[in-house]
Design brief:
The protein is built from twelve helices and ten strands. With 333 residues, it is of the alpha/beta class. A five-stranded parallel sheet has the order 3-2-1-4-5. Strand 1, helix 1 and strand 2 form a beta-alpha-beta unit.
Length: 333
């Protein structure tokens, strides 16, 4: 950037690739990025593969990203150091979100005004954090650090995600205004990360007895749980209802549903990150994985770990403890 005080007009963000789960975890970074530079043209560069931001998650990041470049073939081979990536295009600011030194040296070859990277302890970066600086454990916190280093201001993931009006309309039809809805997301990518389904069912029964409506968020791989969840008095399974109506179940529908919940409970899972993207008040359950690395980012978050209850397995977390934490969030203004 020619003027250090001027905000960048063009920004390039380098990543290797974005699977859907990766993209969901990176949403707070995108929201903070747009909050920091509301008028910049932002290019998302996936140098080594596809990006879900160009496909499954594209509707969510409308207004946050202006351009997605996939499978760019940038960042793998030493021979790339002899060329200028992206045919010599120039950006006021380039942010490298990965930490492999060779890749960083290649990405740094993109013409730029300022270059920010955490690789080698920010040794290759034009701007560096204030010392002392400890590398955060959480991937998303590491990414937010890059925004803070580049801007000199705290990263605030406040820019609103775009939601398809059709998804908002469908969410309103599935969860009409009036009742107090509480979300329960019992699934996860690995069953060892799941709090037992019978505990979610027991919690749902307690919610129903207290006049709240339990809303089970079940993914396509959790069909064997549908019957047990539907047996909970008054329970709703909005994603299954949408599918029965022939409506495509996409992440934006889950996020739109999250905005209609008073609070929710989820495991360390993609569903948890989707609920967090809807800014819901969330109880996040952890056991074999680390919340320091993987906890979702939402304005009101309560983490419960199995280790707090004397165990490593998710079953160590008691229904009473989850209910108490959840009710505190439901009643919190």
């Amino acid at each position: 950037m020619t003027d250090a005080a001027a905000p960048p007009a063009t920004i390039c963000i380098y990543v290797g690739l974005d699977l859907v789960g990766d993209g969901l975890m990176k949403l707070p970074f995108l929201r903070a990025l747009r909050r920091a530079w509301p008028d910049a043209r932002i290019t998302w560069l996936a140098g080594k593969g596809r990006s879900a931001f160009a496909h499954e998650l594209a509707p969510l990041v409308r207004g946050l990203i202006d351009e997605v470049i996939e499978d760019a073939g940038i960042g793998s081979r030493a021979g790339e150091l002899l060329a200028r990536p992206l045919a010599g295009r120039r950006f006021d600011l380039v942010i490298d979100t990965q930490r492999r030194a060779l890749t960083t040296l290649i990405v740094r070859r993109i013409r730029h005004g300022a270059f920010v990277s955490g690789a080698a302890g920010f040794l290759l970066s034009d701007r560096r954090p204030r010392v002392p600086h400890a590398k955060p454990k959480a991937m998303i916190r590491q990414m937010l650090d890059l925004i803070e280093v580049a801007s000199g201001l705290p990263a605030r993931p406040e820019a609103r995600l775009a939601i398809d009006p059709a998804a908002e309309q469908e969410a309103a039809a599935l969860l009409p205004s009036g009742p107090t809805y509480v979300g329960l997301a019992p699934g996860a990518g690995g069953r060892r990360k799941c709090w037992p389904l019978e505990n979610y069912v027991a919690l749902g029964r307690r919610l129903a007895a207290g006049g709240r409506v339990p809303v089970f968020i079940l993914g396509p791989g959790e069909g064997e749980w549908v019957e047990a969840c539907r047996a909970v008095p008054g329970a709703l399974l909005p994603l299954q209802t949408a599918a029965d109506r022939g409506i495509a179940v996409m992440p934006m529908l889950t996020i739109a549903l999250a905005r209609r919940l008073a609070a929710a409970v989820a495991n360390d899972s993609g569903a948890g990150h989707m609920l967090a993207a809807g800014d819901v008040k969330l109880v996040s359950l952890f056991g074999p994985t680390s919340p320091d690395k993987f906890a979702p980012m939402t304005p009101v978050l309560r983490v419960l770990r199995a280790q707090e209850f004397g165990g490593e397995a998710m079953a160590a977390i008691t229904v009473d403890a989850v209910e108490q934490a959840l009710m505190q969030l439901v009643e919190k203004r």
